[in-house]
Amino acid sequence: MKIMVYPGSFDPITLGHLDIIKRASKMADKVIVAIMHNPSKKCYFSLEERMEFIRKSVKDLDNVEVDFSDGLMVDYLKKVSATAAIRGLRAITDFEYELQWAAFNQNLDPDFEAVFLMANSEHSFLSSSIVREIGRMGGDIKKMVPQEIYEEIQNKLKDKV
Ligand code: ADP
Among 65, 99, 109, 140, which lies 20 to 30 A Cα-Cα from 80? Predict the structure, then answer.
């Protein structure tokens, strides 16, 4: 069984992330969207909120699960017997970071494998931080996040200080 893990912060999940999840779900028997919880990285939304946003967004995708890990990603991949990690590439700037990330993980585990999917051109400038910024300033984020969670995210961004 081919299991692929899509790791990230998802703070919050965007349509760009969802596009990668849908495409990965056609290539694997099972896709696990895994929030990699890093206690030293401050996220805007809580772990529970981020997991709930992803759950609601993938509810119609039968072979997609949501999970989290606060350990090393390579350990998590082993634990769930994953074939590979999935990452999305938007621009040259992503490539630089992802290359370093892949090399670092390969160093930790020689068996580490990653699959990179090119971002859909529609989403190539979309990021969680842009969603947060626009939402906090009162802008409309409808075209940036999954429809199921749009209002919830919009309201939460307006309320939080
Ligand atoms: P991280 O904080 O680990 O970079 P993110 O949740 O921001 O986690 O992103 C997870 C993965 O999804 C990364 O590989 C990132 O490049 C990719 N990604 C983020 N936004 C998009 C997008 N709009 N289209 C395609 N891939 C994306």
Answer: 99
Contacts of 62 (CB under 8 A, 6+ apart): none
Which is catalytic among the residues 30, 50, 87, 90?
A: 90
CB-based contact 74:48 (threshold 8 Å): no
Secondary structure element (H or E) that encloses residue 22, with its range: helix 15-27
Instruction: Please tell me the predicted confidence (pLDDT) of residue 93.
Output: 82
Task: For domain 3-121, give the CATH superfamily.
Answer: HUPs (3.40.50.620)
Q: Is ligand 1 within 6 A of the CB of residue 88?
A: yes
**126 CB under 6 A from ligand 1?**
yes
* 89-133 per-position pLDDT tens digit: 998 888 999 999 999 999 999 999 999 999 999 999 999 999 999
Nearest CA to ligand 1 atom 26: 88
- Report the amino acid identity of residue 85: A
Concerning whether 90 is annotated as a catalytic residue, the answer is: yes
